[in-house]
Amino acid sequence: MTNRLKLILFSAVLMILTAQSMVICRDKLKIGTSAPSFYLKTLDNSDFFLTDHCGTPRQPWKNLPRKPVVVSFFATYCIPCRKEIPELEKLAYHYGESVSFVLVDLQEDKLMVEKYVRENRIKLAVLLDRFGVTAKKYKVESLPSLFVIDSKGQLAFVQYGFEEGFEEKLTAVVNSCLNTAAE
User: Fold this and answer.
1) Domain containing residue 157
2) Helices in the chain by DSSP H: which ranges?
3) Which of 97, 98, 72 is nearest to 86 (CA)?
4) What global pTM score does this model have?
5) What gap in Å lies between CA 55 and CA 173, rounded to an integer?
6) Which of 52, 45, 53 is nearest to 70 (CA)?
7) What pLDDT is stored for residue 3 in this prediction?
8) What one-character DSSP code corresponds to residue 27?
9) What CA–CA distance (Å, rounded) separates 122 from 86?
10) Are 102 and 129 in contact, with CB atoms under 8 Å apart?
11) CATH of the domain at 175
């Protein structure tokens, strides 16, 4: 293969990977609106109901604490996701039990996701959106896509695609959600 052909192929691959992290969604969710509710299975086959963490509880008699939830849609092939996930893990460690952090894998085989999580030593809860229904509710068209939902179930932060330095914005939003919940 000639050097020119290698350069063309490399450029094409780079353009595709860059397009993954670009914002291509025109009809985005709006901050301050109710976050779409969802239920998904975790990698260990447990149930995850968003309303068990924030918004109106599905089982009010359980009196579960309300707290902010950070949701990141990802895929094992997503290069920008590999930059975002370690930063989310640092923030999850920092906030402890006061904030829920979850990763939502988009339409991939469970065994492939388990292998990826194991190899990358990911500690965050991983949910499986096998059919992409939750991603459609959140209007996800690029990966990663990141959302912060406050304890009342309102969207506090929406980011489609990866941005360097996002953790500063995310920290400010999460802190604001925690301060609002404490009032």
Assistant:
1) 3-182
2) 3-21, 79-95, 110-119, 133-137, 166-182
3) 72
4) 0.84
5) 17
6) 53
7) 63
8) S
9) 8
10) no
11) 3.40.30.10
